[in-house]
Design a protein that fits this description.
Elements (H helix, E strand, L loop, with lengths): L15 H9 L17 E4 L2 E4 L9 H4 L6 E2 H9 L13 E7 L2 H6 L5 H12 L4 E7 L5 E6 L2 H6 L10 H6 L9 E5 L1 H13 L10 E7 L9 H8 L5 E5 L7 E6 L4 E5 L24 E5 L8 E5 L2 H12 L3 E5 L2 H25 L7 E2 L2 H7 L3
Parallel strand pairs: 3-15, 5-7, 7-8, 8-12
Antiparallel strand pairs: 1-2, 4-13, 4-14, 5-6, 9-10, 10-11, 12-13
Helix pairs in contact: 3-8, 5-10
Length: 378
């Protein structure tokens, strides 16, 4: 339980009941699925974690790997990068690139520059991974975790689902004796949960060492709380080919149909569907991923921003360029400056919200108060 000041006090491994009290009931759950799939008592379904029955375990991986229970940022950074957590706006970066696929088939179906599918395809072809865990939308455009093992299956996962997807439930449901080498496409919250699994190791579920590549997606928020029902009323969902939220000067949520037509909704009309838990998220760029991918923004439509963070990330990017499947150039300085501003604002806003919620403290976010004040002095 939280102490009388509202602070999650230590790194003690707690259990199911503590997860429900500290995360699910307090509005911190971001529906990543890290607690579900390997546990008979918790199920990710219809946008929320369903408690099927009470569990009397006082220690559990459901609590330990949740990205919204106490998270020692230094411990995670030392495991993933070999260094303590720093105060960079967007985390560790070996290289900052503007990149896009050269594969016409991918470009026809992708969201921006097709970098994610290209890197996963290169990984499958080179034998770096045997399968990729992604979010795939069904005919009704509800996202579900999906294991892709071919290029065509990767293409089925193209496009952005703006609703949260419990991808890690699908990871946890894989056989614990599986030896498949995995790539995972993750939001920042998923990447943090995977980093906790890598740091503290998994038990009685798929070996986390099987995960050879984590591709993180930039994220500011997800849409929940009745948003899917809203879309069902506004769009012909089975005919939608993809969704998009265009950058400035656009201010809409767009649905593109298979026949090339488009319907749009003003962002102000859907802002109230933003998941309240996203206000407490400090990470815009998936800082614990091997590579992180976002839009190239207005001036570079059809390109991706690509942050290379680890040796595994550098290896897959270099291989994609060597094969001529990825076109890349240094990220322009104006984009770097914009990325820094946006990522820092995300951190400042989260720290402000956490201090308000936890009586001046940072709650789950295991940063020193000094570093927290340096990032967000307000």
């Amino acid at each position: 339980m939280v102490d009388k000041t509202g602070v999650i006090p230590d790194t003690q491994i707690k259990g199911h009941r503590d997860l429900v009290e500290e995360v699910i009931k307090t509005g911190l759950c971001i529906y990543c699925g890290a607690c579900a799939g390997a546990c008979p008592y918790l199920l990710a379904s219809r946008g929320r974690i369903v408690v099927l029955d009470n569990c009397d375990r006082t220690e559990g991986q459901c609590y330990q790997f949740c990205p919204r229970t106490f998270t020692d940022m230094d411990a995670l950074a030392r495991k993933i990068f070999g260094k303590p957590f720093g105060n960079s706006e967007f985390g560790f970066a070996k290289e900052l690139l503007l990149a896009r696929s050269t594969d016409k088939q991918i470009l026809e179906r992708c969201q921006d520059g097709g970098v994610v599918i290209t890197l996963l395809g290169v990984g499958l072809e080179a034998g770096i991974i045997d399968a990729a865990l992604e979010a795939r939308m069904d005919d009704n455009k509800t996202p579900h975790g999906f294991v892709a093992r071919t290029k065509e299956q990767l293409l089925e996962c193209s496009g952005t689902a703006y609703e949260p997807c419990p991808t890690l439930q699908t990871l946890n449901q894989l056989p614990d004796n599986s030896s498949e080498r995995l790539g995972i496409v993750s939001l920042p919250c998923h990447a943090e949960a995977i980093a906790k699994m890598r740091t503290f190791s998994t038990r009685n579920r798929v070996n986390i060492e099987n995960v050879k590549l984590v591709i993180g997606l930039f994220c500011g928020w997800t849409l929940a709380g009745g948003f899917h029902e809203f879309m069902q009323e506004r769009f012909d969902l089975p005919r939608v080919a993809k969704f998009d939220v265009p950058h400035h000067p656009g201010h809409t949520f767009d649905a593109f149909y298979e026949d090339g037509s488009k319907e749009e909704i003003e962002l102000e009309d859907i802002r109230h569907f933003i998941n309240p838990a996203c206000a407490f998220c400090w990470d815009m760029t998936a800082e614990f991923a091997d590579v992180s991918v976002g839009s190239g923004r207005t001036k570079y439509r059809g390109w991706n921003t690509l942050i290379v963070r680890t040796e595994a990330g550098a290896e897959i990017v270099a291989l994609a360029k060597e094969k001529g499947l990825l076109e890349a150039q240094p990220l322009p300085e104006e984009n770097v400056a914009s990325l820094k501003r946006a990522a820092l604002n995300k951190k400042k806003n989260a720290i402000r919200e956490l201090r308000a919620k936890y009586d001046g403290h940072l709650g789950y976010l295991g940063l020193s108060e000094a570093l927290g004040k340096k990032i967000s002095p307000d």
